[in-house]
Structure to design on (341 residues):
């Protein structure tokens, strides 16, 4: 599986555009899935092979490395422990300039309510210097076309009183919330952001634009609904947006089914209406580009996606581009910066 994917991606070799531009990649995963491992070495191969100046990254939970015993609510702590070890290894300087997992976003079950506090404390103990926030996946849609590797979230999870009682605990520990949901659920997220204005909310993957199942063939209709949902979030200054994730099959672009992946120019042309709309709504200081690797790797390479981001913002100012590629992510996740300007 992985070998065939690599061979396909090599059909579109590209040199890095503006290779010196500092990048924080605020969203990637690491896992050890049978037949398709994506660990420290695999990620570094993508980063180093692309030739972009990725100075640091943020690992986001993906139900990897869980304990197989002990209390269920604490099993996700092992993921943080493993990634913390990877981050320390990366920080040794023996593996290049990229600080992999300089920030870590883990998972807890927020429906535990107030009982989530000791689990949060266990994550913080596992990574006292890098643990930054929580992601509890909230993706729900009635269509069976929205297949996901993670367990299906119940409908209305964001509105659930137990979930919100757990969410309320995040502020006490200075933790942010990574929100992964689909575009029809954006009004629910607006309700959450309004109720917890002091807790940073980081919207994943542009708000989950759907393009398969009942959304197939309705790109303009979906775009307008997504844009309305996104616009309603602008009023809440605690919300920032990750620009990426359109390489997932559920977005409906179909790149994963083509004999060859898209070039960065083709990718920029197809995706810029979404990314530039988000930037227009939120401003560059509330937006950050993300790779969403290796999930988006089904559609394009690491080098190509970052080239596409650079191409669509080539007319932006130096300050605006610094925010989109580095500063917003570094601020949102409290990452140390060695960038001299």
């Amino acid at each position: 599986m992985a070998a065939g994917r690599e061979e396909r991606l090599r059909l579109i070799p590209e040199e890095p555009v503006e290779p010196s531009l500092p990048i924080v990649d605020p969203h990637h995963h690491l896992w050890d899935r049978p037949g398709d491992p994506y660990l420290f070495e695999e990620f570094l191969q993508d980063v180093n092979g692309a030739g972009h100046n990725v100075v640091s990254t943020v690992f986001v939970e993906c139900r990897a490395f869980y304990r197989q015993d002990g209390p269920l609510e604490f099993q996700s702590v092992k993921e943080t422990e493993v990634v913390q070890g990877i981050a320390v290894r990366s920080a040794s300087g023996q593996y290049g300039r990229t600080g992999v997992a300089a920030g870590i976003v883990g998972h807890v079950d927020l429906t535990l309510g107030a009982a989530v506090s000791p689990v949060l404390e266990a994550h913080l103990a596992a990574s006292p210097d890098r643990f930054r926030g929580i992601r509890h996946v909230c993706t729900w849609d009635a269509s069976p076309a929205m297949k996901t590797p993670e367990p299906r979230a119940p409908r209305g999870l964001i509105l659930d009183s137990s979930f919100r009682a757990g969410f309320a605990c995040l502020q006490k520990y200075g933790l942010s919330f990574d929100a992964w949901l689909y575009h029809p659920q954006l009004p629910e997220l607006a309700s959450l952001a309004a109720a917890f204005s002091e807790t940073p909310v980081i919207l994943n993957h542009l708000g989950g634009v759907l393009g398969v199942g009942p959304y197939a063939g309705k790109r303009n209709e979906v775009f307008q609904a997504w844009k309305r949902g996104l616009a309603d979030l602008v009023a809440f200054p605690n919300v920032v947006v990750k620009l990426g994730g359109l390489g997932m099959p559920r977005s409906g672009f179909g790149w994963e089914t083509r004999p060859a992946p898209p070039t960065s120019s083709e990718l920029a042309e197809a995706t810029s209406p979404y990314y530039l709309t988000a930037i227009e709504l939120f401003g560059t200081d509330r937006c950050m580009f993300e790779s969403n690797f290796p999930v988006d790797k089904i559609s394009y390479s690491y080098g190509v996606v970052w080239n596409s981001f650079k191409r669509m913002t080539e007319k932006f100012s130096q300050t605006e581009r610094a925010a989109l590629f580095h500063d917003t992510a570094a601020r949102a996740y409290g990452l140390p910066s060695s960038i001299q300007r």
